[in-house]
Amino acid sequence: MKSVIVNDSGARKQLEVGERPKPEAGEEDLLINVHMAAVNRTDIIIKDENTGYSSNPVPGVEVAGTVVEADSAHSFAVGDRVMGLVNGGGYAEYAVMPASRAMKIPEALSFTEGAAIPEVFLTAYQTLFWIGKLQQKETVLIHAGASGVGTAAIQLAKQLSNAKVIATAGTERKLKFCSELGADVTINYKEQPFDQAVSDATDHQGVDLILDFVGASYWDKNLASIKTDGRWVLIGIMGGSELEHVDLMALMTKRIQLTGTLLTPRSDAYKAELSKEFAARVLPYIEQGTIRPVIDSTFPIESVLDAHQHMEANRNIGKIILSMESEANK
Amino acid sequence: MKSVIVNDSGARKQLEVGERPKPEAGEEDLLINVHMAAVNRTDIIIKDENTGYSSNPVPGVEVAGTVVEADSAHSFAVGDRVMGLVNGGGYAEYAVMPASRAMKIPEALSFTEGAAIPEVFLTAYQTLFWIGKLQQKETVLIHAGASGVGTAAIQLAKQLSNAKVIATAGTERKLKFCSELGADVTINYKEQPFDQAVSDATDHQGVDLILDFVGASYWDKNLASIKTDGRWVLIGIMGGSELEHVDLMALMTKRIQLTGTLLTPRSDAYKAELSKEFAARVLPYIEQGTIRPVIDSTFPIESVLDAHQHMEANRNIGKIILSMESEANK
Questions:
Q1: Which structural domains are found in chain A, ordered by start?
Q2: Backbone angles phi, psi at B80, to 5 degrees
């Protein structure tokens, strides 16, 4: 089958499209004919830093496609259109997915839209509700609001919790898009210190919850932006991970709960439970169109390097999709 | 009435015993004839750093005594023996306590034992169960195991959750005492790096929960000692609060929940709810004698400075009590 492979024969690892044997599905797995895969930062890390998230030599953690081999319990049927997380191997014509975490793609949605859902929406759902415990009408600060997870989180916080959403981004185009998704307040972090804008927007109280994809470079301003007893979920380190000075007293006096999290390395059982709850609670909104996947661009699989560079330059609003569709699939 | 007062007329604040007017209780308060008060680190901080925890000029956040004026709802009667947290003003002959948080002293217990309970047991209960979410048979690392909160936490974790308790302390005498209270593993942090001992004691898995009264000086070893998905409650900074280097990636890859907390500055409603749940769930153990307050020493109120110095030198095992008992009370 056609597949992206990591060629590490040179000085720097390269992604290339080549031929690999079709993967074999276990009894509790689905074998999926992948139509669309989506790009995630973890795919870039695997290439650059040799910190693979799985033993699978093929990158890619989420796909949308059709079932070609069902699981032994027949929880899905051959021909079903499904989307979901895979344990690596998504950038290929065929991929294996545990049936326990597969979700049917709503009828109104294309494969492209389906591939844009799992990773970012499950991450946003996990961080907002399971870890961040967002309550009705609380205030949440969502950094990188125009990113994949950011666009998902803005919609989820607004639609499910009627939260007051404050989003940050670095261009007016991105901020406008955040507003269209439902953000109540948008902040251009390049034009003003975001903590001052948060203070102004919250009557100097700060926010109940921070979704932090940035890390080190935002540390002090996040500390200043969070309310006493606030929750702070650390889910990315786009602004570095190394802090040169931390005063623990600030965490104590504000009684902050700081939780680090990652989705990809979690267990199959965790991903199954998360996918199940998400499908039950959020897919109805997606079917009605009140929550929607946000797609930035679609690249043919042969242009996987261009797709990665597009993400690395932070030019995207929403998801970058890789199309596996050959003539036979169209 | 007799009271400790902070004399700040000199270069350094001094605690002195003097005369003050008896405080006035509001409708929802009890006026208490204080028999015993207990010493807490926050009392020392108020003296040294001018960071008062309340507008009350008299130090002291917990007392045991008899009710001399009941609240208007008569939730307690004149003559009742009560213990609990006060919003400052504990180091005095009379103190005001919101009735919502007062607890009856079990019959078998003296005022001295009653005064040794509220602050440390409520703090340990809050950090273990409300914040730390300790589950049955989990493993908990309790630093400063022979301190007031440490001795309370060892007993609560053991009796209520049948947890595997690992305690650290700096002398063999303290470690022996931790074992007597129920600690399964004790570590002399002066003789070996505690993280290595924790690793050995947990089959290299680490602990589910850390109760951290130490802060900066233990940071790296705590990071090494915690299990993936572990909870870490920061409740003191005996080892400093300033960290020169933190790698946030470690919090993410281990998916750590780090929560800073303090009890004294929390709201009346919080203290009421915590005291109520504690009284219902833990006082039966104390009545039966399976959980006991740990008293290090009792000082007459006139020796308040000696009592503080005893705590500052970390010589105590358990609580340091101040006796307000005049001849009339005996």
A1: 2-117+294-329 (3.90.180.10), 120-260 (3.40.50.720)
A2: -60, 140
